[in-house]
Design goal:
Oligomer: homodimer
Number of helices of chain A: 1
Strand order of the largest sheet of chain A: 2-3-8-7-4-9
Largest interface: A-B, 70 and 70 residues
CATH topology of one domain in chain A: Elongation Factor Tu (Ef-tu), domain 3
Number of strands of chain A: 9
Order of helices and strands of chain A: HEEEEEEEEE
CATH class of one domain in chain A: Mainly Beta
Strand content of chain A: 25-35%
Radius of gyration of chain A: 21 Å
């Protein structure tokens, strides 16, 4: 059999699998990300859940230009890495919603719990000011030293006109 | 000098550095994430920017329980990996906002452009239905085969009561 014939047969076989409902997942298993910066808090003992506090998001010097123009936005999303979650905690698939033990456990993707397979944090913050490679933001619930993965400006398509959440 | 004395001296030195404004970045350089699933579109040729289209987010079978209860939410954030961006594109720090060449370039963190140091995508979608390890969502601007990193339910704190964006 020629290589092109083999290719054709493989394609046909895959199409048959898909036709009967088999889902083919691409073979992407490990993705590497690198922090673009870190969270700097006034004190290590601050209550990170206090949304009135201001934290500093310090980018690596070489990325400073990437912030140009961000001052035009009032709010940004901070995407960060929850570096304090243990490997064991990442395997937990069900938790009590909002830590309320009186409620039955739900799936981790139905909560914003920090322990998840990929411990990525997402918080909408108010942009207070920018200074060179730093953003001063209000409302970030991340510890001092937390690695930052991305910053995205908040725009109209991020706001759901109306939405439902569990009671 | 005893080890505890050395430790004390180092701490004092670091405190002095911080006092004069030096920012100490933790030594976290590589973070590994693993896809929790993949995007499945009806056709590979679909216009991914058409927000009316429905895509399927297929989680790995072993993570299916993590979706329990997500049906109670009308909207979720899909956090995904923009796997088609080249290494070169990731180094670009300034782009024309929304691809409009008549506007002066701004920093990548002042846009939602896909090319960024960590090519993480974030899209708010409408949750249509859940079926076992799959979510059917409306409005996801991701290609067929895109690796999914996380799913987070949309809650009240994700909505800015009022916000500013550039004109």
């Amino acid at each position: 059999m020629r290589p092109t014939q083999i290719q054709e047969r493989v394609k046909l076989f895959l199409r048959k699998l898909q036709a009967i409902g088999v889902i083919l997942m691409p073979n992407v298993n490990k993705i590497e990300v690198e922090p673009i910066g870190f969270v700097k808090r006034t004190s290590r003992d601050e209550d990170v859940k206090d949304r009135r506090l201001i934290s500093r998001v310090v980018l690596k010097n070489e990325l400073a230009d990437g912030l140009d123009g961000v001052e035009e936005f009032s709010h940004v999303f901070i995407i960060f890495w929850l570096h304090k979650i243990s490997d064991y905690e990442k395997t937990v698939l069900k938790v009590h919603p909002k830590g309320r033990v009186e409620l039955p456990p739900v799936g981790i993707f139905a909560t914003r719990a920090p322990n998840r397979p990929n411990t990525i944090g997402l918080t909408l913050v108010e942009l207070v000011k920018r200074e060179e490679n730093s953003l001063f933001v209000k409302g970030l619930d991340a510890f001092d030293g937390t690695p930052i993965l991305d910053i995205k400006p908040y725009d109209s398509w991020d706001a759901a006109a109306s939405f439902d959440v569990p009671k």
